[in-house]
Amino acid sequence: MKSKLLLIGSLAGIGAIGAMTLMAGSINEKEAERVALNQTPVVAEVDKNKSEEWERYYPRQYSSWKKTKESSDIEDLIEKKPQLAILWAGYGFAKDYNSPRGHYYAVQDNVNTLRTGAPIDDKSGPMPTACWTCKSPDVPRLMERDGENEYFTGKWSRYGSEVVNSVGCADCHDSETAELAISRPYVDRALLAAGLPTFKDSTHQEKRSLVCAQCHSEYYFKKTRYVGKDGIEKTANVVTFPWAEGLTAENMEKYYDDINFKDWTHKISKAPMIKAQHPGYEIASTGIHAQKGVACADCHMPYTQEGAVKYSDHQIQNPLNTMDRSCMPCHRESEEKLKGIVKQKFDRKEFLMEIAMDNLAKAHLETGKAMELGATDDELEAIRTGIRHAQWRWDYSIASHGSFFHAPEETLKLLASANEIAQQSRLKLVRVLAKYDAINFSAPDFSTKENAQKLAGVPLQKLIDAKMEFKATLEKAWYKEAVQKGNLNMESREGVDEESSYFKK
Ligand code: HEC
Ligand code: HEC
Ligand code: HEC
Ligand code: HEC
What we know:
This protein is mainly α. 49% of the residues lie in helices and 6% in strands. The chain contains 23 helices and six strands. β3 (264-265) and β4 form a beta hairpin. The longest helix has 38 residues, at 335-372. The chain is globular. The model is unreliable at 1-27 (pLDDT under 50). The chain binds heme C (HEC) (4 copies). Residues 11, 51, 54, 58, 61-62, 65, 167-169, 171-173, 178, 180, 208, 211, 297, 301, 311-312, 314 line the site of one heme C.
């Protein structure tokens, strides 16, 4: 209780200094607010996963949080960049991959993506429970209820009626004090492994980024043996950040190589691949803003003045929509000029990214051709290792979407490195193809989503049909059950399921 009051009090104080003037009316307003907050009970443990339960105490944060719903556009990135289907052949991402939208949609987009398949019960489907991990405050609730290892065991569908509230208050805040908090134990483990201070020992400014790092980071599923409460030995897929060697792409590549880790074997080239997830926190850390101490929240959750009250805008979105509050407190250039600079950075990234994707896609297809003609694993080993490293660096540099702005030099460096390694692999491939009389081989056309997915062996229509069946049956049952169990208020799903890459209502 006390620390919550202190927190609100100090924020009101900062607001007052910022405004430099204090009118009598606003003092009274503040006083009234203090009194109201004084009577505020903590958000009940059973309800903390439901963000609407926080509304009555924090109406401004709640209503701005809810506006993440406004960022609803879906962009089918495989349609836009068909090479992606080749690069991810044999892996879920070749089926369906869209640009990110507001936090409001995190759970629904996870349910809708063709990657999570069409389970028919709590034991079927392609994905493990770990796929829910960065979508919902229900996840820490389940980790507490079932134990962390148990949470990370079994199929994704197992928690369909449990993980139903999208990224919300309890993901980033302690429900008793409202202070910033991390709700996933693997973050502290990763910080410790990297030799960094844990969340508790970090500065306040660093915490304003670390709450985002819970989800906007690189991770893999670490197979972990444990004995369950029922006495049976099981294997958990525990979300783990590969930070023990350091937080750069090269450090993590070494980490994965040293433990011989692969996410999948590429369907066309048989290369042992690593999928970069979304190392947004790590790559942003190398950029000028982070190095000058600017936190994620400074740009994505700018302070907003409402009457005398100052609060953090919880409508996390593209900060170019809020430049007056996100950028202008620090920059003197005009908004137009800054926007132009950002656009230039985007175009430079696109240029190198296109070349990298083209080289990588061709390297996979040329390797596939060499195999067809009889090339041996020995002949292809160095080539496959090259493809693994080149694709990791390409993926790492762009997977978090904002990196071209957060850390332009690092992004371009990684893309240059991806291109260099992919080119070296293709030079080696020329020799192998020559040996098998195919020096004139040129990769088949992958310039449309249809062609690329065909080459990647993705049965798109079949996947969509199964998914629609799942949506009409099991998914509906999940929400019904969730309401019965008290996990979900149906109103919080309003307008959440209007669109995906394969349907529009
Ligand atoms: C993705 C993380 C995240 C989520 C989700 C989130 N917050 Fe916050 N919240 C923050 C950050 C970062 C701050 C800034 C804290 C600071 O600097 O002390 C903040 C600040 C606050 C504050 C302090 C006053 C202020 O506005 O700066 C309150 C109260 C608060 N949030 C309530 C909520 C409520 C209620 C929800 C759910 C409707 C919510 N938050 C969801 C990250 C989050
Ligand atoms: C509990 C996990 C989680 C946390 C914590 C989290 N995010 Fe996210 N974030 C996501 C997911 C998942 C998506 C993609 C949602 C979708 O596409 O449906 C996303 C999307 C975004 C987007 C894209 C929004 C848009 O409108 O396109 C931005 C920007 C973003 N997050 C920034 C942040 C920042 C800044 C923080 C910390 C203050 C943060 N996130 C904390 C999981 C999280
Ligand atoms: C200096 C301001 C600034 C800081 C600090 C910052 N961002 Fe961003 N971020 C941006 C801008 C601007 C964009 C949008 C670029 C574009 O696509 O036009 C962006 C884009 C993003 C996106 C992609 C959104 C999308 O829809 O494509 C995510 C996710 C994101 N940021 C998360 C983070 C996280 C996590 C942090 C902290 C580790 C962070 N940002 C720090 C300014 C910032
Ligand atoms: C808290 C202060 C702060 C905020 C907020 C901030 N910046 Fe910056 N920005 C800096 C600092 C510091 C630098 C480093 C250059 C310097 O020291 O002058 C910088 C550098 C830049 C650069 C040049 C660096 C490069 O990578 O080429 C651009 C472009 C930029 N900022 C755009 C933005 C945009 C767009 C936003 C809002 C989305 C924003 N900044 C928000 C402080 C800030």
